[in-house]
Amino acid sequence: MALRMWASSTANALKLSSSVSKSHLSPPFSISRCFSSVLEGLKYANSHEWVKHEGSVATIGISDHAQGHLGEVVFVELPEANSSVSKEKSFGAVESVKATSEIISPISGEVIEVNTKLTDSPGLINSSPYEDGWMIKVKPSSPAELESLMDPKAYTKFCEEEDAAH
After folding, report:
1. How does the record describe its quaternary structure (predicted)?
2. DSSP letter at 151?
């Protein structure tokens, strides 16, 4: 995390672009691509949440890309178990040293488990966004909603385009 923040601040201070011309590297080099990981077997929303669907349970968290942009996470607000979440609606918030951001549910369903470790250790979102930093487990009410989410390749392209626009 410290390395990522240092690299980003150094690149900004030196006014380095996040891409290098094709004459130097092919394909184009992306700083965010070097530091963010996108895992196979997950689906991704354009609001940067991920979903791992196994049987009748979907685990939801925020992507490595998202936590990298947030910076150090200091507080997480999550729903209670047995509550419901709706696709494209907020179900909680992540507060970092930079800002507070809503967490948008990529699918609808009943919350069957909440990662209570995040209450005392919100930094797990930074250090382990796909493993220890998961947020909620949901029993999907409409599994077909998963089909509208991006696969890892599409999400990587989406992040690269989003970063290039900023």
Report:
1. The glycine cleavage system is composed of four proteins: P, T, L and H.
2. P
More confident residue, 13 or 44: 44
Q: What is the model's pTM?
A: 0.78
Which amino acid is it at 155? Y
Q: Is 29 helix (H, G, I), strand (E, B) or coil?
A: coil
Domains of the chain: 43-165 (2.40.50.100)
Q: Encode pLDDT of 38-86 as tens digits.
A: 999 999 999 999 999 999 999 999 999 999 999 999 999 999 999 999 9
Sheet with 109-114: strands ordered across: 43-44, 49-54, 57-62, 136-140, 109-114, 84-85
Q: Please compute Rg for the chain using Cα positions.
A: 16
- Contacts of 15-23 with C-beta under 8 Å, sequence gap 24+, read 18/163, 18/164, 19/164
d(CA 33, CA 152): 12
Give me the torsion for CA of 6, 11, 14, 18, rounded to 10°. Answer: 180
- Residues in contact with 125: Cβ distance below 8 Å, sequence separation at least 6, in sequence order: 61, 62, 67, 73, 76, 94, 118, 133, 135
